Amino acid sequence: MKKGFLFVLVLALVSGMCLSFMPTPALATDTDDQTTASVATGNTTDKEYELVNGVNILKEGQDELTFNIKDGQALMISGQEVTDPLVFKNCTFNLSGGTVKISDNQDGISYNNGEVVTKLWIGGNVQFENCRFITADGATKTTAAGYDAAIYFFGGDIQLKDCDLNATGYNGQFLGLYGRTGAVTFDHCHISTLNNKNGWSYAMYGGSVLKLTNQSTMTAKGMSTDSGNINAFYSGDNRTGYDAIFVEDSTIDFSDNQAGGFAINNVNIHVDNSTIKVNNNLGNACNSGYWMVNDSTIQMNGNRGGHALSCIGFEMTDSTLEVLHNGYAGVYIQSRDSSLTNGKVDIRCNGERLLSYSAGDVWLNGHTLTVSGTTTSNGHEGALWLGGVGRTGSVVTTGNAQVVAYDLNANAADNLKSNTSPVLTNANIALDNETDEHTLFLNPFMETGYARGNAETSASNNDADLFEDDRVTDRNDMIGAENAKIGVLTTAQLGHHIYDFAKGEVVSTATQNAYGVLRYQCTECAQYIDHTADHSNSFDCEGTYIYAPLVSFNFDKNTEDEVTNMPANQTEIIYGNQASEGEAPEREGYQFIGWYVDPEGTEAFDFTSSLTTPLTTVYAKWVPQTTYVVEHQYYTSTNGGEYVLDGSYTTDAVYGNIGDTISASTIEQLPVYNDVTYTFDHASEDIVLVEDAAQNKIILVYHRDVTVDIDVDPEEPMTPDEPTTPEEPEETDPVQTGDQTPMMMLALGLTISALGIAVSVKKRIS
To answer: What is the per-residue pLDDT for 747?
Structure first.
């Protein structure tokens, strides 16, 4: 080995060339033990660093190299100089095969506990720029030790910029931080595991510090285990109460894992301008840590087996917190007072694995949650939505801050949840006024107002469906007229869920002995009915409902005769509301008087009254109608003479209601009689219909004036007929012709004069 090296050195000196060479890998015993590996898939370089079996040590930075760390091989990168970091640029690290145990003296390098198991150990002052770290198919841990990790970061200032770290199908712990000093910083890096098995995707031990900055991402999806519990991110217990995790302008997403999300010891977690999602996992979304969150979003939804944000405590400012549909508690404050300032918060529908308030939405555990500043939520603009809050402690709102919350102590008399005390006495509650009230079926087996069922005896489920309460033997136990308990709860009192009160669904209509049922669905739960089809590690919900009583209102025509224009029965009236009267029905020959509570028509129904019995029937009251006729009279005046009745026409009898006024001005005029046209003259006065139809008559009078020529013999002057006066029609106001005597004298004189003129003319003509 030494001879080969000296030969090369002499050759370089003789030729005047400068030789750059790779450091000799540790534990290499002979050059024959070193094998050249092929370039890994995805390799972006054309140079490969040769490794030997066992532990290889590298104390110099490299550019554009590929490190194929195969089965039986491990690489230790150690930056010894604090002021002179090792720098790796554009390098690829392919990790395949099993991890390798590192023990004993490794060229004086200090490493954790005197023994580690890894593929790639990095410690000291080291920097990586635009590098890739990839596990190959079949890469695996070789021990069950906590210090067995594919990539093992030890103490020191380790920085990664624009790097990708990816494990697909890795069996074991992918990335671990074990340092007692310094920090591991990921600057615009993308870190991911997909289908990681039987180990944490990411872990921290011994007081290490993690920093994600500048749009870095850290994801874990599809994790699984053959046995035991695993989490996407684990933090050990060697050191507590320090600033351990910094997430700035970055994203973390641990979703759809057969695992939990964060399992962290009592350390401080700083989140600024970032997004953290932990959704649809088998275990807890988070356990422990003190969270300091600013201008960020935290979403923890659909985690089946545990709490969502279970933590030491938190301080959240100008941030969004969404915690929905988790198996146990939504937010579980372990040991410190916490605060929400200027936030958007939606916490509800938690405890859904057992549909149980035993978990609740916010669990204070004797601590104070202070809400201040501008508050809002997706559920209600202007207020944080905290849902069901217990067991002891206090929610305190300051200024104009509001919360939508339900105190689980409200059901203390029924021991729905044990060991509770009031927690909302210092909170400004929204959606808790008269305008927010809803009339509902309440559980009749409970003393306190509760719109759900209590199935603790059979299913440890005190948020069961109302009809699945342990004590229900028949639906009428809840909706029967004799058994139903009907009361009012506000939206806030129902705030453990969120219901769409604009879209009730009719389940059944009322009968004589039972109320109808209108159900309102929790809109959040509705999204989880078939949830496991896409998120197998989450859980399904059968749907969560509350129920409102309906009453029916029937109209009875109260006769065997045909009746038209009957109003339809009303079968979907909310309990306590009024019925609509509708239009009046019609029955030939009868007058509709109104709707009455009895068939005999002794008491009229009050349509302004509230309906509270399951079925109300009203009966039509009828009285026989009267009739009236219209007589049309026609008169003619000939040559200015008296008006003579030519004839009349009387219409068929028309039905009308006694007491109705018939106006003559509304009667259709018929000016043509016997093909002769007349002029309307006048009508009798309006009439009020009376029971005696003979008195119900209106007369319309028409007239015409005609002039005819009269032939007179001059030898025998014509003597005019005696004028006649038309017979006065009964109960009419006849056409006014005035005093007839002067007119007749005038006519007579004119006639005589005319005759004389005619005779004179005739004499002249003759």
So the answer is: 43
For 407-413, which contacts have Cβ atoms below 8 Å and span 24 or more sequence positions? 408/357, 408/360, 410/448, 410/449, 410/493, 411/446, 411/448, 411/450, 412/448, 413/447, 413/448
The residue type at 147: Y
Residue of 370, 309, 301 lying closest to 340 (CA atoms): 370
Facing residues of 34 across strands? 52
Query: Does residue 634 contact residue 678 with C-beta atoms inside 8 Å?
Result: yes
Average pLDDT per block of 10 residues along the chain, 766 residues long: 36 34 32 33 64 96 98 95 92 98 91 87 97 98 96 95 99 95 97 98 94 99 96 87 97 98 96 99 95 99 93 98 95 97 97 68 97 98 96 96 96 86 97 97 97 85 91 95 97 97 96 98 92 93 94 98 98 97 94 96 98 98 95 96 96 92 95 97 95 95 92 54 46 43 42 37 30
Euclidean distance between CA atoms 586 and 590, whole angstroms:
8
User: Is the separation of the CB atoms in 644 and 724 below 8 Å?
Assistant: yes
- 8-state DSSP, 589: T
Q: What is the SS3 assignment for 13?
A: helix
What's the distance, CA 143 to chain centroid? 48
Using only C-alpha atoms, what is the Rg of the chain? Answer: 50
- pLDDT in the model for residue 456: 82
Query: Residues 6 or more apart from 367 whose CB is under 8 A from it?
Result: 313, 333, 335, 336, 337, 338, 393
The position carrying tokens 């201040």 is 372
222 vs 196: CA distance, rounded Å: 7
Residue 8 and residue 20: Cα distance in Å, rounded? Answer: 11
Q: What is the DSSP string of 492-513?
A: TTTTTS-B-TTS-EEEE---SS
Alpha-carbon span 323 to 159, nearest angstrom:
33
Query: What's the confidence (pLDDT) of residue 754?
Result: 38
CA–CA separation, 337 vs 351, rounded Å? 22
Placement of tokens 């519990």 in the chain: 229
| 675 contacts: CB under 8 Å, gap ≥ 6 | none
**Residue for token pair 């990664």:** 160
Helix (H) or strand (E) holding 10: helix 2-15
Work out the number of other CB atoms within 10 angstroms of the CB of residue 607: 14
pLDDT at 305: 87
Are 298 and 276 within 8 A, CB to CB?
yes
CA distance 395 to 390: 10
Give pLDDT, residue 113: 66
Report the DSSP pairing between strands 275-279 and 251-255: parallel
Which residue shows structure tokens 């306590």? 576
Helix (H, G, I), strand (E, B) or coil at 429: strand
DSSP assigned state of 480: B
Owner of token pair 């007349």:
678
Closest by CA position to 279, among listed 507, 527, 452:
527
Contact 351, 359 (CB under 8 A): yes
Cis peptide before 391 (omega within 30 of 0): yes
E-assigned strands of 343-435? 344-348, 362-363, 368-372, 384-390, 394-397, 403-407
pLDDT at 419: 83
Strand partners, 8: none
Distance of CA 168 to the CA centre of its chain: 37
